[in-house]
Amino acid sequence: MVRNLFPNASEGARKLLVHRAVAGQEVIRLKPGLFLLCREVRRTEPHPYVLPALLHSPSHISLESALAHHGFIPGAVQQVSCVTALRSRSFTTPVGVFSFYRVPARPPRVGVEAVKLDAHSWAFIATPLRALADMIYLNRDVSWSNDGPAYVLESLRIEEEDLANVSFAALPEIRESIRSRRVVEYLDQLAREATRVGGTP
Predict the structure, then answer these.
(1) How far apart are CA 131 and CA 189, in angstroms?
(2) Claim to verify: residue 32 and residue 68 sit in the same structural domain
(3) For residue 76, what pLDDT is reported?
(4) Within a domain: residue 38?
(5) Are 172 and 99 in a shared domain?
(6) Measured CA distances, 79 to 10, 40, 65 (Å)
(7) Are 132 and 83 contained in the same domain?
(8) Between the CA atoms of 83, 85, 88 and 89, what dihedral angle is there, to the nearest 10 degrees?
(9) Domain range for 76
(10) Which position among 124, 126, 149, 195 has the lowest Cβ density within 10 Å, counted as fewest Cβ atoms?
(11) Is 2 found in the same domain as 74?
(12) pTM score, two decimals?
């Protein structure tokens, strides 16, 4: 955008302009090379789920953020939690904290949907099943033999009714994508538990 506004300026002059705009709080720096206009001059407010794809890609909204988006866990989530196939990173910005956790899934977006957030915004968000798979993968002490459904129903405080409504249609693809014996065993048993409490995997 700066290059378009000042086509005849040198690269150094453009960088100086951006530096002055950041110092004057007209522009917010999210990371090197990525900026956001200040609230007073931007026309729309960016949805927090749009920014992760710009900060660290490929990635998708997952974990507590995805479960909160789907209404599966109570309360507000204080940061945006994401999963990436790249290295784990965290960005603390003036517009929020964005944390990325590595889950080496291939392909990385199995069980992830493109969700329309508003008239102008889309984001890749994990389905409830994929969000649970990501959480179980990252919480290495969790296993079905040790925790059973208590991890989901008590630690995460997911209601049995919500568990019963989780779609397990993507389970075969998630099983092949993540390829963790511990995660696969947990999800397989969770599917049986969902059937027991009245779901239809």
Answers:
(1) 16
(2) no
(3) 63
(4) yes
(5) yes
(6) 38, 24, 8
(7) yes
(8) -80
(9) 46-196
(10) 195
(11) no
(12) 0.86
